[in-house]
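Hi R.,

As promised on Friday, here is the backbone we talked about, encoded as structure tokens. Could you run it through your design pipeline when you get a chance and send me back a sequence?
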């Protein structure tokens, strides 16, 4: 269900279950985690095959779970989302078509989210008595702010790509999101790692600023010659 291919500095990870809109079962979650965390490439591009990015949890699986099994399935999804978020490579989500429920949560765990004009987003679980339990109640207000997060999560409404961009759910709307992954991969791999670690750092502001200064100094020392050569150039 999860395909992996290498393309230079980008590892392409494809959710490949289009007949089920790339809905995820427990084994699929494990395959996804392995595909992202085992990447040697500095950038992972995550996308879905067919007309959806990801429909979230496979409801055929969820319907048969006991209370304890349902709790473990939620914890399983949380662990995988956390693994994607903390993975060493920069993870770029290319969202083309529908992202629903756990698919939105998976996208939220990625470092960069880019949509096509055909992308749509929704947390429809409230319509049948569920909600996003793969870290969505944590990441959604962090990304959107509490007000917009409440609106999206409580209404179950569908958000189109342009509104998703306005809300901050995605950073760009483009025809080919993979080009953004390649744009990121064109940069220095160790600089990408440092920036990701610093922006994801949960420590206090003062400690983060100290770490930021130290990482900046390391990179300046490492690339002093390149910086000197480029200082008279433009962006």
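Update: got your reply. Pasting your designed sequence below so it's all in one thread:
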């Amino acid at each position: 269900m999860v395909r992996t291919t290498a393309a230079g500095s980008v590892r392409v990870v494809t959710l490949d279950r289009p007949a089920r809109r790339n809905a995820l079962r427990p084994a699929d979650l494990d395959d996804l985690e392995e595909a992202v965390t085992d990447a040697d490439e500095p950038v992972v591009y995550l996308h879905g095959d067919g007309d959806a990015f990801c429909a979230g949890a496979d409801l055929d699986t969820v319907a048969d779970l006991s209370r304890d099994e349902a709790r473990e399935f939620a914890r399983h999804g949380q662990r995988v989302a956390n693994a994607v978020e903390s993975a060493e490579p920069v993870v770029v989500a290319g969202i083309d078509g529908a992202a629903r429920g756990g698919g939105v949560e998976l996208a939220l765990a990625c470092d960069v989210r880019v949509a096509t004009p055909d992308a749509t987003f929704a947390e429809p679980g409230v319509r049948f008595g569920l909600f996003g339990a793969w870290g969505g109640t944590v990441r959604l207000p962090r990304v959107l702010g509490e007000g917009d997060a409440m609106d999206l999560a409580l209404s179950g409404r569908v958000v189109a790509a342009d509104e998703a961009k306005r809300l901050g759910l995605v950073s760009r709307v483009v025809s080919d999101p993979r080009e953004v992954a390649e744009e990121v991969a064109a940069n220095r791999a160790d600089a990408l790692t440092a920036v990701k670690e610093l922006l994801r750092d949960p420590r206090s502001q003062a400690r983060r600023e100290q770490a930021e200064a130290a990482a900046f100094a390391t990179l300046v020392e490492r690339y002093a010659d390149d910086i000197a050569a480029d200082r008279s150039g433009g962006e």
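One thing I noticed while checking it: The first strand starts at residue 2 and ends at 7.

Thanks again,
M.
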